[in-house]
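Worked example 3 (structure in, sequence out).
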């Protein structure tokens, strides 16, 4: 195994090395307290300061408007597949929720919503095996719906929404798990943005929910306390003992992102990283991209080789030189390079050069 390993895993994904070093330095003695961050009370002034600072940093980095609330919630993004319809469906008499099916997790979100709302899929790219984002017009969006849900970046297929749909009076909800903070967005376009931590924010198991204030207060009576966004907001995400370590890591990741120049600077770098890999793919018929070019993600680059045997050889050779976790998702196969914010350009260059050399040796 190579000394330097670059982790291209889709999630849990790599964290910035300075963040890992900071965690190591403070592990046994957080802020001179003589105890670890995982040992102090979630209601202590020291931890509440960490939580509040994470919220402040996120607002600063994103320009989040004042009428949006930031929640740290349990269960990752998939728990929100249930929590969203529980919290939003009853804000309108129809209890209707609209979904765009653009990949595996979009489909899972829609299926979960069936139990808590009158779910309707209004657009899908399933017919082309999710190689693109389906088209949707304002006229197709029923204005009596509680919300419209999209998955802004599709980790498995390597597609993303480059332009978000106009939804009229219907709040737009976006699962941004695999791309939050990777590009600048106008949060005013959304009623809710949510993301699991394990791509660009921190360890797995929790999620961030960014919700417009007017969408609070509509939870159904059957909504469990820990899934009730209004209660979570009222308690500043401390309704019960939260994952203090995860929120601490979020703060460190946001500090690191600020040091890199913020979201604008990281978006520029992310575009350069993905362009380097797509350049290799497009300049040959040896590799075949899964996503249609106009819908390509800058976070997840998915491609195939001519045979499964050749793909396995590629993955084995890549792993031997420190290019880790490149195997594609079981639903698609092939190769997937997840190049989230912490992935340095050096890792992408090593992969790109390996791809060129592997083609030369195996064509």
């Amino acid at each position: 195994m190579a000394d330097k390993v670059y982790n291209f895993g889709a999630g849990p994904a790599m964290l910035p090395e300075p963040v890992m070093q900071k965690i190591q330095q403070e592990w046994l003695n957080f802020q001179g307290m003589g105890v670890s961050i995982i040992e102090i009370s979630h209601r202590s002034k020291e931890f509440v300061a960490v939580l509040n600072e994470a919220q402040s940093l996120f607002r600063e980095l994103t320009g989040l408007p004042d009428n949006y609330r930031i929640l740290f919630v349990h269960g990752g993004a998939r728990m929100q597949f249930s929590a969203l319809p529980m919290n939003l469906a009853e804000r309108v008499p129809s209890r209707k929720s609209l979904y765009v099916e653009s990949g595996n997790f979009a489909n899972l979100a829609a299926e979960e919503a069936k139990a808590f709302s009158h779910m309707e899929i209004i657009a899908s790219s399933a017919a082309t095996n999710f190689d693109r984002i389906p088209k949707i017009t304002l006229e197709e969006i029923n204005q009596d719906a509680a919300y419209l849900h999209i998955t802004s970046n599709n980790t498995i297929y390597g597609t993303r929404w480059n332009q978000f749909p106009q939804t009229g009076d219907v709040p737009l909800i976006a699962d941004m798990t695999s791309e939050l903070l990777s590009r600048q967005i106008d949060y005013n376009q959304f009623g809710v943005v949510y993301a699991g931590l394990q791509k660009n924010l921190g360890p797995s198991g929790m999620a961030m929910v960014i919700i417009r204030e007017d969408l609070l207060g509509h939870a159904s009576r059957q909504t469990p306390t820990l899934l009730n966004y209004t209660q979570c907001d009222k308690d500043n995400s401390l309704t019960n003992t939260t994952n203090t370590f995860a929120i601490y890591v979020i703060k460190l990741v946001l500090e690191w992102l600020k040091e890199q120049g913020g979201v604008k600077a990281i978006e520029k770098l992310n575009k350069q990283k993905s362009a380097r890999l797509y350049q290799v793919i497009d300049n040959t018929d040896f590799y075949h991209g899964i996503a249609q070019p106009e819908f390509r993600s800058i976070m997840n680059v998915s491609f195939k080789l001519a045979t499964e045997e050749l793909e396995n050889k590629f993955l084995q050779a890549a792993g031997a030189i420190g290019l880790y976790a490149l195997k594609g998702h079981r639903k698609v196969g092939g190769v997937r390079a997840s190049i989230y914010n912490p992935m340095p350009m050096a890792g992408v260059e090593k992969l790109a050069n390996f791809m060129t050399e592997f083609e030369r040796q195996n064509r």
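Notes: Residues 262-282 form the longest helix (21 residues). The longest strand covers residues 68-74.
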